[in-house]
Amino acid sequence: MFETVLELLKASGVHAWEAIDVKERGWEFYFIRHALDQNRVRDIETITLKVYQLSDDGESMGSAEAELSPTADEAEARALIESLAYRASLVKDKPYTLHAPRAAEPTAAAPSLDVAAIAGDFLKAMRALPETATEDINSYELFVSAKTRRLVTSAGIDVEESFPDSMLEVVVNARHDGHEIELYRNYKSGSCDAAALARDLAKTMRYGKDRLHTTATPNLGKTDVLFSSSAAVDIYRYFVTRLDTAMVARRLSDWALGQSVADHFDGDKLTVETLRTLPNSSHNRLYDGEGAPIRDLVLLREGVAEHYIGGRKFSAYLGLDDCFVPTNLAVSGGTHSEAELRSGAYLEAVEFSDFQVDAMTGDIFGEIRLGYWHDGETVTPVSGGSVSGSMHDFVKALYASRETVQYNNWRIPALTLLKGVTVTGG
Which CATH architecture has domain 2-211? Predict the structure, then answer.
């Protein structure tokens, strides 16, 4: 069907177009505790079409996109293309061109697409977890696939690549004196990092145990808050989003190339870079979703902006031809040891009901589900209340560990300390 769609697009008369065909083949497993409840095979195809229309006077251009069922016939495909063409004609954006074909840098080795081996690694890691009589695995679901994505555009791009994609959902139970709590985890990756999975689930079981013995979070006012879980990814995503051409072109970010992102630094000056590959990442790609080659690139070097990244539309508006949408990100520049960051009085926030960082306003907010109040002498598990503040201020007073940790396609400092966070009590 995809070849038929390409011929229809070429003959449609639209100004420009993109078509993506993703084929996914894999397995699903559903476990109750460690007993297999059911499993099934995945065999899915997704076709996405995007068309562009230029106004008669050439002063504006619009786009529209939609999915086409792989079982659609030629008449349905033609009708969808006509509908997209009409919808695109209603949009009045500034014109721009699509990416021209460019070859990606050579890659050392293709990723393993052995679905059986990847699934086996996950199942072996789950069976080896150190469960106890009061903390154990309630259930888990495993999805492992090999995906092949082909992108074809009217500008001459025709690229195809294959990659593994996995997701593991786990529910952990903890019990004490008739009370029980569940903690949910969702792990996304390409292949399995068994050691990292075991470490995180062991911590999760400990968090479940401690959650049953919490007191209310004290009303601490402004204090130091330590982030030691995946919530810290949202803190570092702020830096990348502020360097996105969509934010810069719309003047939602004032970060300029060659300039420091803060007028001074009391904490660490971070370096942020894109990486084409990370071990076990599900986002290792040669090309982004618009056909631009992905490469290793420093975006922020010791607090100074060096490069923007982003999609073709807003990059073109800024006159940038070599931008791309990154898939793997790495943050470095932490200068502190774990012992240094864990000294004095601070709140370690490890579980949130919700945690958000607004890249435009800089506001952060999180509802504390589990934290540890370190008063300098004792450690008390706490729950309730919230953390809040502004990343505009925290950029200047962010302290990170030298040690790093990976969450799928992000490699970040293992510990992140923000100073002057407002902590309301539970």
Answer: 2-Layer Sandwich (3.30)
